[in-house]
Amino acid sequence: MAVELWTDEDSPEPAVLGIQHRQITAEQLRRFEGYAAEIFTAFGMDLNTPGTANTPRRFIKGLFDVTNGYDGDPKLVRVFPTECRGGPDCRLSQVIEGPISFFAMCEHHVMPFYGQAYVGYIAHEHIVGISKLTRLVRLFARRFTLQERIGRQIAEALESMLEPHGVAVYLEAQHLCMQMRGVNEAASLTRTTHWRGNYDSNPSLRSEFFTACGLER
Ligand SMILES: [Zn+2]
Ligand SMILES: [Zn+2]
Predict the structure, then answer these.
(1) Angle at CA of residue 166, ends 142 and 190, nearest 5°
(2) Which of 31, 118, 135, 182 could lock 213 by a disulfide, CB 3.0 to 4.6 Å apart?
């Protein structure tokens, strides 16, 4: 039988998901569109054309949409119990998903960074549907955030949801804030890793994780 640790409406989500359920009024939206229009005009955009007249509205709406990870994901979580029998399967047997593509907004520059996530865990108390790992990555990515934080939040959420023997998270991403401005380093890929539990203590699990992800270089 599936255990629902929480559901969307009736019970509060765990704090580890950082969900805010944003409420923006129509009056606020109008004001924000005005701010955007003022900035775009000052920076050189002609808002008096058929193509740009609604650009401030589209910009505000778009920014809200790409950060909807704050609003939660009703389909995110259904956690299944598993039976831990101990032994090597329990300590060493990995579930690995990836590449999971994601898009995020850098909180330093409000410019996108995007890439792939690979998530692994070693089950103990619970298992989770594979598609939920994708949902979890996107829940944390679709915010104003940092690559390092997304990885840490994924690891912490899986630890608290699944009580596993270990969690591994590897992210690689391109940051437009670096590629379009700043150092203009178009080809650079930023890589981050997070290890919990057995992955932290056992280097061979980490290399097995990278091999299974096809990331051995
Ligand atoms: Zn940035
Ligand atoms: Zn176990």
Answers:
(1) 45
(2) 118
